[in-house]
Amino acid sequence: MLERVDRVQLVVRDRGAAARRFEDLLGARPVREADAAYLGARRVVLALGESEVELCEPAGAGLAR
């Protein structure tokens, strides 16, 4: 049985709008923003309980498309 999720990465069109939605619906809070070169994305990391949700907005060549 699944006991804990460390993090979930989601590719979204607009990380700011998606972050606001997660905040409003789930009470998530932003903890950091950073570019992820290997993903080719700009991302915002949200804390959700003990887990993190990474919202990745494509920003060039990379895995996030």
Describe the structure.
This protein is an alpha+beta fold and 65 residues long. The chain has a single domain, classed as 2,3-Dihydroxybiphenyl 1,2-Dioxygenase, domain 1 (Roll). Helices cover 18% and strands 45% of the residues. A 4-stranded mixed sheet has the order 1-4-3-2, covered by helices on one side. Strand 2 (29-36) and strand 3 form a beta hairpin. The protein is globular. The model has no long low-confidence stretch (mean pLDDT 93).
Instruction: Name the helicity range.
Output: 10-25%
Strand arrangement within the widest β-sheet reads: 1-4-3-2
What is the helix tally? 1
Mean pLDDT: 93
Structural class: alpha+beta
Largest sheet: 4 strands, mixed
The first-to-last residue Cα distance is: 31 Å
- Order of SSEs: EHEEE
CATH topology, by name, is: 2,3-Dihydroxybiphenyl 1,2-Dioxygenase, domain 1
Question: What is the molecular shape?
Answer: globular
CATH second-level architecture: Roll
What is the count of distinct domains?
1
User: What CATH first level would be assigned?
Assistant: Alpha Beta
The CATH superfamily name is 2,3-Dihydroxybiphenyl 1,2-Dioxygenase, domain 1
Low-confidence stretches: none
Beta-strand content = 35-45%
Structure described in brief:
The chain has 65 residues and is α+β, with helices and mostly antiparallel strands. The chain has one helix at residues 15-26, and strands at 7-11, 29-36, 41-48, 51-58.
